[in-house]
């Protein structure tokens, strides 16, 4: 089931490509003992692999391209490091995006732009999963800083996803972005927000004064809203990531907007409200 925010001239759909099973060590600073409900019985935290579709007059923009049709077995060394005696079979599994797109009434041929917030494996999987462009009529866009950097310790699935981007480059449809902000379509803008990766971008869409903000992985866990000590293991520049996160919270707090994060449970759109006990997330859909 997809979630939809209707801004009038623009609709934004949250779509899920799959699931990631993360041991607690992926969230340094998060006290899982104080929040026992976060962990599943297998000892991991389950998060969706979100993608967002922005549809307006004459354009269909897909923000992030999921993990792809991949099933990544749970690495034994990670299970050992996390002390998991009975880990889940996979650390990540994708494959749901085509069905979610169809449910939203969109065929791969309809997508005009694929914008990648960054190039981690769970965001690039459907570019060319078996060597052919999955979105044959789309330009593929991403931050130049991420594309120019070859991962020194690639996560499972990352190099396969990057091979898909090479297919896009060879086909002449890859556009890398260096500008602080770039318009993807009328009312749809990507803004550089480095930290999670050097080339990480966030995307906003507005129509009729209302707005949707898609923060990618700049915010990885809901509890980061009031706890600056919680980070994420694969953040490449943790200090920049924290600064980017706080700037986004400050900019969005109290505003009548809907905010989407790639990995928030349920992929619900949120608003940031202020209470005497700090900020809180309020679901808008
Ligand atoms: Zn991610």
Key terms:
Metallo-beta-lactamase, Chain A; nine-stranded mixed sheet; five-stranded mixed sheet; 285 residues; 5 helices
Protein model, in words:
16% of the residues lie in helices and 32% in strands. The protein is of the alpha+beta class. It has one domain (3-283): Ribonuclease Z/Hydroxyacylglutathione hydrolase-like (Metallo-beta-lactamase, Chain A), CATH 3.60.15.10. Strand 12 and strand 13 form a beta hairpin. The chain is globular, with a radius of gyration of 18 Å. Zinc ion is lined by residues 120, 122-123, 217, 262-263.
Topology:
Elements lengths: L2 E4 L4 E12 L22 E12 L2 E5 L7 E3 L2 H7 L7 E4 L3 H7 L9 E4 L22 E5 H5 L9 H13 L3 E4 L3 E5 L2 E5 L8 E7 L2 E5 L23 H15 L4 E4 L9 E6 L2 E6 L2
Parallel strand pairs: 4-7, 7-8, 8-9, 13-14
Antiparallel strand pairs: 1-2, 2-3, 2-6, 3-4, 5-6, 10-11, 11-12, 12-13, 15-16
The protein binds zinc ion.
The site of zinc ion (ZN) has 6 residues, from loops.
Could you say which overall geometry the principal axes of the C-alpha atoms support? globular
Which structural category fits the helices and strands? alpha+beta
Instruction: Summarize model confidence as the mean pLDDT.
Output: 95
What profile does the largest beta sheet have?
Answer: 9 strands, mixed
The CATH architecture assignment turns out to be: 4-Layer Sandwich
Compute the number of helices: 5
Radius of gyration over C-alpha positions, nearest whole angstrom: 18 Å
What's the N-to-C terminus distance?
Answer: 12 Å
Helix content: 10-25%
How many extended strands?
16
As a percent range, the share of strand residues is 25-35%
Unreliable stretches covering 5 or more consecutive residues: none
**From N to C, what is the helix and strand string?**
EEEEEHEHEEHHEEEEEHEEE
CATH topology: Metallo-beta-lactamase, Chain A
